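Name: MBL fold metallo-hydrolase
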Amino acid sequence: MTQPDLTISRILHAGYVFGCGGTRIAFDPVFENPFSRNCHAFPDVRFDVDQIRRERFDAVFISHFHDDHCSLDSLDLLDRATPLYLYCLFGELFDMVRQLGFTQVTPLRLNEPVGIGPFQVTPREAMDADVDSMFQVRAAGMNVLNVVDSWIDDGTLAQLVEQGPWDMVLWPFQTMRELEVLAPSRYTAAPPELPEEWIAQLQALAPRYVVPSSCQFRQEPWSWYNRAFFPISYALFTAEVTRALSTATVVRLDPSVSVTLDAVSLRPAPPLGWVIPVGPQDVDYVYEGNAAAPHTSEIARHFGPLTEAQLARVTDYCRSELPAKYGEVEAASEYFDEPRTWQLSIYDHAGVATHFRYRLPPGGPAVLDDSAAAPGWLTEIPAAKLWAALEEGEALTSVYLRINDPVGEAAFDAGTERALAGAEVVDDPLIRCLFSDTFGAYQAAQLRRLLARPA
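Structure predicted for MBL fold metallo-hydrolase:
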């Protein structure tokens, strides 16, 4: 009896469709461009939403709850009888997906395989097991590791080596400078090179094929992040991995592209018809270090004005909700163990700032302070992005926060600078108040909107 072929198709970012013997399963499907509000497909694509609604998957697997992997707007396009398998330690996400109408929603457990027709899908432990997972996929005699967004620790690597040999590894090829862009003058430019442990891990896994995976997006076309966020190009990844793994072939799978994998070859297959390439597809990342970050006032001008109600929401938050919230969230370092003065600057669509000054007593709520005391911490954000974080669950990586980094100005006196050397960027009071103890804000905002649609 002839063994069926295994076909692997790229959707976008970390999204894939695997097909074998008439069974089709999807991983982290996102059918949006942009997704996560400002992640624009790179290379560019559009989606045939009507055709996606007619697609039928035998199962969908979601590796973790981040909104670029689990989007309710994308899941909303799927048949509600589709079995969904989610790796998430928080029950709220399962409740939200069920409220959307899905009837078969199952939590994934590490190292426990799930059988779907000819497929055996096994979640494997990521370095941050509270958040991420990886997928081992076996079908048609092939063994594929989908690393998704994960970093791999030594214990898991040893386990994965034992699970070999590997026919293909889908590797998250980009490091992301998520914190560095928040305070660019306080970080040196990262070198454009692969982390040393990546090469060693790929050598240990020794796959036949390596796919640079789990990125494929840029920010808005005007964004300075496009030159500062992603240090590694496709060309660099291909060159370094090819040099280090002489028996492996690096294969770039752009959105819609499909391949058939067997024991002796990797062959082109018909593309996904509902992922439609737009414009040049052979594009690559360009990295320019810290890339002359513009002032927050300039960034804020790219966003439209808030409505009167939206502006009132932002102002009320800064005056009332934020001060109270500050007393409930702790800093990771000792910088805020002493009283500090914090200035929060909110920039409107015209680039004009409204400044809020707070006294930050250790362990207590913040207090609005109109004194002329020199600030010991500075935070800047566009008003539109603060509203989006509050009401739409927008993530830290896209709100253009700037911390202790006023462009072209000396921020602090020498003593404060010395004290700041031991502080972490994520100690920022606004970051802690917005993000430290919330879960699924993006999906919750999506669900409210989806459920409010006319019947």
